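Tutorial, part two.
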Amino acid sequence: MTQFFYQSKNDKKESAKVGTMDFFGTISSVSNETKKYYQENDWTSAIQNSFQEWFDEQSLFNNKGELKILISKIAMHMKEDFRKDLFVQIDELLSEENFTEDDNLISVDSFAGFLMFFGLVPKIKTPSLTVTHEGNIATSWLDETVRLHVEFLPNRLFRTAVSRRDLGEKELLGHQGSIKSLETFLVRNQLHKVYANE
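Running the prediction step on this input gives:
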């Protein structure tokens, strides 16, 4: 609940009348004159919208900070260009200009899973990052014949979608499992050349 003070327009010397108002527009413990003033000037909507804008901005800022702190903990093992590319993509995904009502904040647990994969396979190309409807981070690598998409799920799990074109034929692969088994799956299916910097 937020407290406000309203000075009567009829008598500026009158003591301020005190009331309470929540961010959903409910006004209580105020005079009828005060209620009418705020209704006519649509202050409740203004305050609600202002609060929502501040909340969204703060949430985006906090989410970016959480992810960048995770990166900083293993930054010593990253090439500078790789780290900078991740920072740039995070800023773009969570920018106020690009963020819409249909977008989601990035799950810290999911992003930690991606960094865990990096720890297991540090020599990887910088992926293209996207965010799923569940807030999971998804990475993509591609070359002339292969598209590799890996979604990092909570609890250190992953889900892949692979599209391959060999000799004019299209082959689709899908797999889900523990992140510790991800590299084995990718190498077994000869996909390491798509994401690995050898």
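The chain is about 40% helix and 25% strand. In part three we will examine how such features are distributed along the chain.
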